[in-house]
Amino acid sequence: MTDSRFDDNSKIPFVHRMALISDELYESAKKNCNEEYVDVDISNVKCAKDLHTISECTARISKFHILEPYCTSEFDELDNLDNNRKYFLETYEDSLHLSSEFPQFGCPNYNSYLCKVWATDISVQKALRIRKGTVREWVRCNFSIDYDKDVQSTLSYHLHLNTRGYRALIYSGDHDLGTPYLGAESWIKSLNFSIVDDWRPWFVDGQVAGYSREYGNNFTFATVKGGGHTAPEYNPKECFPMFKRWISLEPL
User: Fold this and answer.
1) In 60-72, which positions are buried (b, 16+ CB within 10 angstroms) versus exposed (e)?
2) How crowded is the C-beta side of 224, counted as CA atoms within 13 Å?
3) Sequence-separated (6 or more) residues with CB below 8 Å from residue 125
4) Cα(157)–Cα(171) distance, integer angstroms
5) Could you read off the pLDDT of 36-79 as tens digits, one per residue?
6) How would residue 84 be classed by pLDDT, with cut points 50, 70 and 90?
7) Are 14 and 89 spatial neighbours (Cβ–Cβ below 8 Å)?
8) DSSP readout, 95-121?
9) DSSP strand E in 114-177: where?
10) CB atoms near residue 12 (< 10 Å)
């Protein structure tokens, strides 16, 4: 998550591009919400109605990879860590909340459950030199920690580092609804970098692995074809050469 103005607002265009909502519903929401889907005026009934319909259409879609099976959890979804509102489309998904019951094989949280069993094991904690009694049960993403989310955007950090000569590779799985690639495209565009190598495919073993765009100041954006929220987890074969080429100063 870089900036919610771009990342969260890109979810509606993304679900339309991925054929999860109709053209008519998308155009209605686009018009009624004025392309603002997060900070919605509560008096805007037409916008709220469209967003509710979109939420119903996508409620049983796996947000971290839209082609994965949707798996329920006994845990309620957490509110977005914004202290003032809850977004229409949730940010934190079932796959992060580990049920006390053994999850179904093939569900996104199955691997997380195995990690939980492993990391909670006393012998494992001893081998990792974790002080006895400090961690009773390991949780993959512990949102119960008491802190405030006070950095709403990291765009200024990207700009600060880039103008000082630091290279950057920004990549997105193109099937991730949690933080869609469209959001990354939008916030990168807002930086007003010049394009030096426009949209083109990049390949692994002769197959299209994704698409990339090179900007001035050594800034690279890439999509990973078929990738989810954690692209290397879903597409390790493609992501390893992608990173290897980038870190070796080679074109993707």
Assistant:
1) eebbbbbebeebe
2) 24
3) 119, 132, 135
4) 17
5) 999 899 899 999 999 999 999 999 999 999 999 888 754 333 33
6) very low
7) no
8) GGS--SSPPPTTSTHHHHHHHHHHHH-
9) 168-173
10) 27
Specify the DSSP class assigned to residue 17. Answer: H
Q: Are 61 and 177 in contact (CB under 8 A)?
A: yes
pTM: 0.81
What's the CA gap between 171 and 179, in Å, rounded?
Answer: 11
Size (the chain), residues: 252
Residue 179 identity (one-letter amino acid): T
In whole angstroms, what is the distance from residue 184 CA to residue 11 CA? Answer: 11
Number of Cβ within 10 Å of residue 79's Cβ equals: 14
User: Do 186 and 201 touch, CB atoms closer than 8 A?
Assistant: no
Question: Following DSSP, what letter does each residue of 43-85 receive, concatenated?
Answer: T-HHHHHHHHHHHHHHTTS-SS-TTSPP---SSPPPPPS-SS-
d(CA 149, CA 83): 8
Whether 128 contacts 134, CB under 8 Å = no
Rounded Cα distance between 64 and 186, Å, is 19
- Residue 16 CA to residue 13 CA, distance in Å, equals 5
CA distance 100 to 229: 24
Q: Give CA–CA dist 218/153, Å, rounded.
A: 21
